[in-house]
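Form 7-S
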Amino acid sequence: MMGGKLGTIIARAGHEVVFSYARSEQKLKRLARDAKGKARHGTPREAAQEADALLLAVHWSRIDDVLNQAGDLSRKVVVTCSLPMNDDNSELVVAHKLSGAEELAKKIPKARVVSAFNTVPSEALFAVYEARRKARRPSLVYCGDDRRGKEVAVELIRDAGFHPLDAGPLRIARYTEPFALLVGQLAYEGEGGPELAYRFERFGK
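Output:
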């Protein structure tokens, strides 16, 4: 859901988008058609070849498979919103001393990995995008070690309607990934429904 919705929003914001890696090719075709703009579907390798950036939004159990299909990702910007969850999505399988984003960076050491978009429920994305012209946007934290990768992430975050908030190097994903579970708890178990976003504000001088 995250990949489909973010891809749709990014396409509607004017970017070329290739939807890829789904159990059903028909689903990919439908996503590309409904996104309108410059959107199409393709294989992971086709999606990765010409891309300036790749959004990785797959279950943790499928990471190795999609990376194998994508091929060489050297120097590519890879924005990951995949949380390192176990098979029943009940807990993180990588946490405390390491993060899923850091584990991913080890798998593709020549790529520019940035962690973003995993701290907000997919149900909030369209509402945030539709309200993007409002002065006070919700925050979205991101982190990474590569300057160029973070620049690309900032552009996508702004295009999606959020205010980007740089949380620092990629190791900070050790904190943002558990924070994503807190947001999920509030969204799916709290009152008011899952269309939940957050905003950090500074007070004082």
